[in-house]
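Q: Here's a chain of 509 amino acids. Please give me its 3D structure as tokens.
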Amino acid sequence: MSKKNVNDKINSLLITVTKTAYARVIFLLCFVFPALFLAVFNYVKIYDEFTETAIMQKRYLATLSSTIVNEKLNAIINLGLSFATMPLLVDETKKGDWEKAVTMFSNARRDYPFIERILIVGVDGVIKAAMPGNPVIVGASRAGEEWHNAVTEGVMPYVSDVYKEITGPRYNVIAAVIPIRNDPGLDFNDITGENAGRVLTGFLVVQIKLDIFSGWLHAVSTGPGGLIYIVDKKGRIVSHPRYKPQGEIIDFSSVPIVKKVMKGESNVELNYNPIENEERIAAYKPVHDYGWGIIVAQPVHKAFSLRDKTLIFLSLVYAVIIAVSLFLGGLILHLLTLLKKREEELEKLSLTDHLTGLYNRRGFVTLAGQELKMARRMNREMGLIFIDLDNMKTINDTLGHPEGDKALIDLAGILRAGFRESDIIARVGGDEFAVLVLEPQEGTDKKFTGRLEKNLEIENAGGSRRYKLSLSIGTVYCGAQHSCNINELLMQADKLMYQEKQRKKSKGR
């Protein structure tokens, strides 16, 4: 591709961009779209990354908390096993000396502050002895309690759900229940419901106040507004930072995620807690060995506060970038428009005579050449009239160049009035003018000549100048079937004009 063709394409593009509203919009979008694309891409990426991080963190905290609770309960069971397998305890329970057996735990609450009370219960479910003692408790039957039914059927150490003590101060407690074997070396797997009465001497029940559980998870950080709570197998609160451990027993079994964790499910999800009237991101994990559940929850607006702040900051940054892009794009578009206008003005100046406002010789040759080409394609005739202002040198020499310039300007006005708007009028020399007449009819030369002479008479009659305007004219035609050259036509018309000027001189005009 030649350099001229490249320049033409660039100019064509500039014209399209600077003159078409649709193209301007596309041009500006070329600046905005990359920033907009990056903004959306990074927004979605950061949103997903921060959300996934929050979800993973909650899942990890739920797993960690479940592990801690499971290990702590195992420790309590192991403590209970160490109590229940003491030979002296086994011997005294075999003999039915319950009071002597329970005295072995007189210092248990001092050594293990989390223990509220230790009970020795017979295989039949009747409380035989308690430490500290309480006459209301001893003799009461616990045969219908959940923990008694479970440990009787399974004959395995068992952790109960939350319940209240049957007598004052009626603490909320859970119980670690350990079967007491008459042969401590006997494995629990060898004990069944059928032989439980023969191989067991009773049950050791270690009651534990709920206050202990809040301390287990105290070191686990859940972030601003976050919390961890524990529910038992029935969905009742074992530990919750918003509820007192020794108030009323709170039932969370209606909370959707509590229902799921009670079924042994684990997950992280956004949920609405109807009891606490709060939308949260919550992770839940069962404490598998005991059927309890762990829930790690945090209000959504706090869990994602860092994400939201980052996204707001990112949005502001990209808003500035997009604004700057629009500004730069608009500025470049404005500069291109100014450049194009400047080029058009320069081109107009290069084709226009600065004195008369008519086309100059270059403009005339350019436009007339195009019209001649069009005329050949359209099978039309063209006429060229060459006009010379007589006595121009005399006017300049005697009256000065300003008066000569005024004569040229006045003649330009006469030519505009004497020809059609579609005709091409130009000043092609100092005092020489040319007119390309489009589709001339028969007698056009006389018609236009007559009109010019009439306009000259009016101008000469009404003017205050000390001379009269006079013209010499030469006219040539280009037939519809001829291939004409504008420069040749100018030369021919100029020659005819010169012949007329000579005839005038010979006649003394």
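Q: Can you summarize the key feature?
A: DSSP finds 16 helices and 15 strands in the chain.
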